[in-house]
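Q: Sequence in, structure out?
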Amino acid sequence: MKNILVLLFLISSLTQVHAIYISEIMYDPEGSDTSREWIEIYNDTSSAVDLTSWKFFEGGTNHGITIYSGGGTLQSGAYAIIADNPTKFLADYPSYSGLLYDSAFSLSNTGEHLALKESSSGVEVDSVDYNTSLGGNNGNTLSKINGLWVLSVATPGDINQETQEVASTTSNSTTTTTQAVIAQTSPPTAVIVLYMPNEKVVVAGAESTFSVFGLTRAGININNVSYTWAYGDGGQGVGSSTAYRYAYPGKYIAQAEGGNGQLIGIGRMSVRVVAPDITISKVSSGKYGNYIDISNPNNYDLDFSQWKLSIDGNIFSFPKNTLLAGNSVTHLSGIAMGFASTTIATSTTIKILFPNMEEVTRFSPQDEKTTVSTGTQLLKQIALATFINNKPQIKQKIIEQEAKPQPMVLGTSTKKLETEMESNIKISTNTNEKKDTRLVAFFKSLIIWR
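A: Exactly. Output:
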C-alpha cells in the first residue's frame, strides 16, 4: 500500500508543472500542531491570479481562501502562503512579508490528498498525495524541488532548500542524526530558457547590439528578470538589450545570465569580430545627383546600422539594418541619403565613421589617378602606341588586358609581356642583332606607370 501511495504521489507531481501549484507543505510543526499548519503555492503562469474564488481541498472538504495581507493577487513568478491561522503563522515567521491567505483546515500527520481547485469549473489545478515516508515531520517541511517532493527546511515565500542526512553516530543506546541544508541550485520548476542568436558577426571598433529574453520551457513569460553579460574579451554589460564594442578582431563567446532571485538561466553565442576593411572607391554624379561607391572586399556582409557618412564635415546617417554585401561594390545613393546635390570638389574629404564618430576610412577626389597628357608623359604615350602598332602579338595582349575590369598592374601577365618585349625589341648592328636594354627598360617603365 505504501508503494502505491508513493506512486500516486509521483504521478500527481508530474501534472500542471507550469501553472499554479503547491510548492511546500508544513503538516507537522515542531511542538503543537494546532492552527500552525500551512502550505506554500507558486505562480508559474505569465499572469497574476486572484485566488479568493478558488478552493483549497483537504480532508474531503473544499475550504474557502481569503486575503489576510500582502496584496490582492498572486503575481507571476511569486509565492504565497495559505495558512490555517495567519496570526500564528506570522508569530512563527515574523520576517515573512509576502502574500498571505487565510483558510481553515487541519493537515494529517500521516498523509492525505491536497488540491487547489478553480471554483468556476471545480477542476483540480494542482494536487499532491503526501505521506510520512517522504519525511517532513517534527518541524521540517515537504518541498517540491526540480519536480520531486523532498524533505526540506521551512522556507515560506522563498526558494526551497533540501536537507539530507550526512552522518549518523551512536552513543550508548542513543542515535544522533546530523542533517545538512543544501540550497536549491535550480528553481522549483524548469530553469529560464534564454533566447539569443547562436552566432553573430560584428565589426571591430563599432558598437553592436546584443539582445536576449527568457521564458519558461513552456514558453511562459517571467516577470522581473535581470540579465548580465560577459562578452568574452574581459568586457561586461547589464540588460536585456545592450550595446558593446569589441576592440580587436577575433572569435569570442558572449554569455548572458538571466534570473529573478527564484529562477535562473544561462545562454551563450559565438561572436565573430571582423576588421572594417572597406574603401571608398569612387565618387560620381549621375542622373539623380551624386553617388559614392564603397567596396567591401570581404566574404561577409557588414552591418552599417547607425554608421555615418561625412562629406567635408556634413554628416549623413545610415539607417538601422543597413548591410553592405560582401565581395561587392555598393552604390550609396545621394538622393536616398541626402547628399545628391552636395558640392564635391577636388579637395573634398569624404569619410566613413562609426556611430561614435570614429573614422573608419577616408577618400578625396584628388587622390584618384588622372592621366597627364603633357611633356614626357605625352612622349611616352606616343612611343608606346607606335611600338604596339608594330607588334601585333603584343597589341592583342594589350587589348585583352584592356577588356578586363581591373587596371593593368605589374604581375604575372606583365612579366610575360616584358619577356616577349625583350625577345622582340631588337636593332641591327651590321650583320648581328642585339637587344637594346635601354629600350626594354623604357617600355618597362611605361607598363609600370600605366
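The domain at 193-274 is CATH 2.60.40.10 (Immunoglobulin-like).
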